[in-house]
Amino acid sequence: xxxxxxxxxxxxxxxxxxxxxxxxxxxxxxxxxxxxxxxxxxxxxxxxxxxxxxxxxxxxxxxxxxxxxxxxxxxxxxxxxxxxxxxxxxxxxxxxxxxxxxxxxxxxxxxxxxxxxxxxxxxxxxxxxx
Length: 130
Hints:
By secondary structure, the protein is of the alpha+beta class. It has helices spanning 2-27, 34-39, and strands at 42-46, 51-54, 64-68, 71-75, 77-86, 89-97, 108-111. Strand 5 (77-86) and strand 6 form a beta hairpin. The longest helix has 26 residues, at 2-27.
């Protein structure tokens, strides 16, 4: 009798572990939820020096928190904002670059115009929406 009850408890415990573990594994593959956006490292290539990183996706009222130069930069996600046009390139998408050092407060938005490989008015491939 004790063996039968113990077996039932073990089966029930395994079912609970499976029920709670499965959603976590699925969420880790989404690339969209808040936790995954913070932990997944995506990179974009900036093609210009001195590109402004701003507190918002607005070129007239957003504060500049730093600048970035040509090269690869970590990028968390992207969202629409002000239209920016540079030469033949134009885009309303902005990419969030995380802080360079945690606690510095210099994470911010860069217009997708300066990201290599994009098209006019198009999202940057491989970067999830915010």
